[in-house]
Specification:
The complex is a heterodimer of chains A (395) and B (44). With 395 residues, chain A is mainly α. Chain A has one domain. Chain B is an all-alpha fold and 44 residues long. Chain B contains 1 helix and no strands. Chain B starts with 17 loop residues before the first helix and ends in a 10-residue tail after the last helix. The chains are: A mainly alpha (395), B mainly alpha (44). Chains A and B meet through α1, α5, α7, α16 and α17 of A and α1 of B. Chain B: Keywords: Membrane, Transmembrane, Transmembrane helix. Chain A: Belongs to the UPF0324 family.
C-alpha cells in the first residue's frame, strides 16, 4: 500500500528490501518493470476470458452451476499464484516486483467502486461502520497486545501485530512500525503473516457466511471488519456478491481512515513510556518528538487519500443521477463498472504474484500463534458486532 | 540534538505518493466514463 498512508505494496516492497538485507538484491530496471506489468495485464486478461468462457464450456454439465458461481477474483488469484510459481522458477520475479502494485490497483478500483454505491447507502452505513470499527479495533488490539505480552514478545512487535490485526493489515503495520520505531525484520514478519492469513480468508469467509445464512449487509460487515488487507476484503466481498462488497468496502474504508488515530496513540504511548522509563535518558526529547511537526501531521499523513476519491465518485454519480436521464447515464456508469472490474482483476492477480511466505518461517511459532488466536477473536467479536449493527440494514 | 532514528518507511520512492496517484487515476477514469469519452465498447 501507499507509503506514508500505509499501503501494502510499499510495505511488501519493504519486505522484499528486508529480505534483500540477507540475500543479494536482484537488479530492477525499467525493462523488467515493464515486463512485469505485461505479465500482470496478460494474466488479468486471461482471468477475464476464463470468467466468460468457463461457464460456456461447462454449460449443461454437472459442474456448470459451479462454474457460473465462480467470480473473477478466484481466477485472478489462481492465475497470480501460477504466475508467481513460473516467475519464481525462472528467477525473474524479484526483478519485476515494482510492477506488482496490488494497492495501487485496488485503490483505483475502490475509487471507481464509489460511483456504483448510492450515497444514501454510504450515509446510512457510516454510523454502524464507525461504531463497529472502533469497538473491533479496540477489542482485537487489546487482545493481541495482551496475548503477545503473555507469550513474551517484544513490545514493538506486539504493537505491529496488534495494529495489523485490528486495523488494516500491512498498511497498519507500516504505520505502526514508523510510530514505534520497530525493526525492519519485525515489519517483515508481520507483513508476511498478514498475507498468509488473508489469502485463505478471501474464500473462507464468504463460504462461512453463506453456510450461516448471513444477510448481505452482515456478510459485508463481517468480511470488512475481519480480513486484514483492503485488497483481500475487496476480493472476498466480490466473491460474496455485490451488496456484501458495498458494505465490506465501506467498513474497510472506515477502518483505514482510523489508522492515523491509532498511529498517533502508539507514538504517544511509546514516547511517553520512553520518557517516564528513561529508556533513552531524555524524557524531554521524547516529549518533543511527540509534539514535533511530524507527529502532529501524522493524522493527515496516515489518512488514506483514496477515501476522498471514493466519496467524490459517489457524490459525482449522485449528482448525475439527479441531472441526467437514466438512458444516458447508465451506459456511462457501466463503463466505469467495467474499468473497476479491470482494476480489481489486476489487483487480485498481483495478490497471487506477490505472495511470499518465506519470512513467516523465520518468525518462529509465537507470532504465528498470536496471529491465529487474534484472528479467531476477530472472527467471533466481528460476527457479533456485524449481527448487532447491520442485521436491520436494507439496500 | 540526536539524529532522528530511521523509520521503516523513510525510503519510499514512488510509493510515497501512490495513494494520491491512485486517487487521481481513479477519478480521471471516472470522469472519462461519465463524460462519455470512455465508452463500454472501448473496454475489452
Amino acid at each position: 500500500m501507499t507509503a506514508r498512508n500505509g499501503a501494502s505494496t510499499a510495505a511488501e516492497e519493504r519486505l522484499d528490501e528486508t529480505t534483500a538485507d540477507r540475500t543479494p538484491p536482484a537488479p530492477r530496471t525499467g525493462a523488467w518493470t515493464l515486463a512485469g506489468a505485461v505479465v500482470v495485464l496478460a494474466l488479468a486478461g486471461c482471468a477475464q476470458w476464463l470468467v466468460r468462457s468457463v461457464p460456456e464450456w461447462t454449460s449443461g454439465t454437472a459442474v456448470g452451476s459451479i462454474a457460473e458461481a465462480i467470480e473473477y477474483p478466484v481466477y485472478a488469484i489462481a492465475l497470480g499464484f501460477l504466475g508467481n510459481a513460473a516467475l519464481s522458477l525462472t528467477g525473474v520475479r524479484a526483478r519485476m516486483t515494482a510492477a506488482f502494485r496490488t494497492e495501487l490497483f485496488i485503490k483505483i478500483g475502490l475509487v471507481l467502486l464509489g460511483a456504483s454505491i448510492d450515497l444514501g447507502i454510504i450515509a446510512r452505513a457510516f454510523g454502524p461502520a464507525v461504531l463497529q470499527a472502533v469497538l473491533l479495533i479496540a477489542a482485537v488490539f487489546a487482545f493481541t497486545w495482551w496475548f503477545a505480552g503473555v507469550l513474551g514478545l517484544d513490545d514493538r512487535l506486539r504493537a505491529l501485530l496488534a495494529s495489523a490485526l485490528s486495523i488494516c493489515g500491512v498498511s497498519a503495520a507500516v504505520a505502526a512500525a514508523g510510530a514505534v520505531q520497530a525493526r525492519k525484520e519485525q515489519l517483515a514478519y508481520t507483513a508476511t503473516l498478514v498475507i498468509v492469513f488473508a489469502v485463505p480468508s478471501i474464500f473462507l469467509l464468504p463460504w462461512l457466511a453463506s453456510l450461516m445464512g448471513l444477510p448481505p449487509a452482515v456478510t459485508g460487515a463481517w468480511i470488512g471488519g475481519n480480513i486484514d488487507t483492503t485488497a483481500a476484503v475487496t476480493a472476498a466481498g466480490t466473491v460474496a456478491g455485490e451488496h456484501p462488497l458495498q458494505i465490506a468496502s465501506i467498513v474497510k474504508v472506515t477502518q483505514n481512515a482510523l489508522l492515523g488515530v491509532v498511529a498517533v496513540l502508539l507514538t504517544l504511548y511509546f514516547a511517553f513510556r520512553a520518557g517516564t522509563a528513561g529508556a533513552d535518558g531524555d524524557a524531554a526529547g521524547a516529549q518533543r518528538s511527540v509534539l514535533d511537526r511530524r507527529s502532529l501531521a501524522m493524522l493527515w499523513d496516515r489518512f488514506p487519500k483514496f477515501v476522498l476519491g471514493f466519496l467524490l465518485a459517489s457524490i459525482a454519480a449522485a449528482v448525475l443521477h439527479a441531472t441526467l436521464p437514466e438512458a444516458v447515464l447508465e451506459p456511462r456508469l457501466d463503463a466505469a463498472k467495467e474499468l473497476q472490474t479491470w482494476a480489481l482483476t489486476l489487483a487480485f492477480v498481483a495478490i497471487g504474484i506477490e505472495f511470499h511466505a518465506g519470512s513467516a518461517r523465520e518468525a518462529g511459532w509465537r507470532p504465528v500463534l498470536v496471529f491465529a488466536a487474534a484472528t479467531v477473536v476477530n472472527l467471533v467479536v466481528g460476527l457479533c458486532l456485524a449481527l448487532l449493527l447491520f442485521s436491520g440494514f436494507s439496500f | 540534538m540526536p539524529a532522528r532514528p530511521e523509520y521503516p518507511d523513510d525510503h519510499r520512492r514512488f510509493s510515497l505518493s501512490e495513494d494520491w496517484i491512485a486517487t487521481v487515476i481513479g477519478l480521471l477514469l471516472l470522469v472519462g466514463c461519465l463524460a462519455g469519452v470512455i465508452a463500454p465498447e472501448l473496454i475489452p
